[in-house]
Amino acid sequence: MSDGVRVPLPIVLIGPMGAGKSRVGHRLAASVGAPFVDTDTRIVERYGPIDEIFDREGEEYFRIVEREVVAEALREEAVISLGGGAVLHPDTRDDLADLQVVWLKVSPEAVAPRLTGGTRPMLTEGGMSRWTAILEARAPIYRELADYDIDTSRRSVARIVDAITERFTGGRR
Ligand SMILES: Nc1ncnc2c1ncn2[C@@H]1O[C@H](COP(=O)(O)OP(=O)(O)O)[C@@H](O)[C@H]1O
Ligand SMILES: O=C(O)C1=C[C@@H](OP(=O)(O)O)[C@@H](O)[C@H](O)C1
Ligand SMILES: [Mg+2]
């Protein structure tokens, strides 16, 4: 357990859809007693459901709104979970260059059951082959930005939280 451990903030989670950014971020924040920000949740609070934004206004508009919310969030001393495509914005990549960034990795086999029943608009057509194509396009960006990466495919959320905590505290407990 890592309760009461002080980690330097912000810590930002990036990676593909279904890697566990939202879930791990929530648990990491609770574990270290830090505020938690999920930028998709903020978008939904302000602009409504993400699939409806895509339907109504398209991806390009979503990315503009997302950038605004991400820019604000990255100024907070919090654990921050981004949406998988937030790194597509060059200003976000600039911001992340100076921050502590964790890339949550996941294999296609492990992610498939995590994505079933979801409403992610990027996956409404094409399913897993689309997920894989999107990851291939974005992986170089995730790699470039990450200070630490961890494969979540066969790890529990608790183990992932402990690994991230250890990385950013040098194992001090
Ligand atoms: N390490 C894990 N092992 C098993 N299931 C997980 C793990 N991390 C997340 N999940 C599940 O996978 C789904 C997607 O997780 P989520 O945190 O929304 O991913 P992201 O925010 O990266 O898209 C959720 O149902 C979540 O409970
Ligand atoms: O990868 C993407 O382009 C997206 C990822 C989603 O977030 P998660 O990565 O948390 O699923 C959400 O921001 C939106 O549906 C677009
Ligand atoms: Mg998420």
Quick structural overview:
With 173 residues, the protein is an alpha/beta fold. It has helices at residues 21-32, 39-47, 50-57, 59-73, 90-96, 108-115, 127-145, 157-169, and strands at residues 11-14, 36-38, 79-81, 100-105, 148-151. The longest helix has 19 residues, at 127-145.
Largest sheet: 5 strands, parallel
Ligand catalogue? adenosine-5'-diphosphate, shikimate-3-phosphate, magnesium ion
Number of DSSP strands?
A: 5
Q: Please, what is the CATH homologous superfamily?
A: P-loop containing nucleotide triphosphate hydrolases
Can you tell me the CATH architecture?
3-Layer(aba) Sandwich
Based on CA inertia axes, which overall geometry fits? globular
Ends distance? 9 Å
CATH top level? Alpha Beta
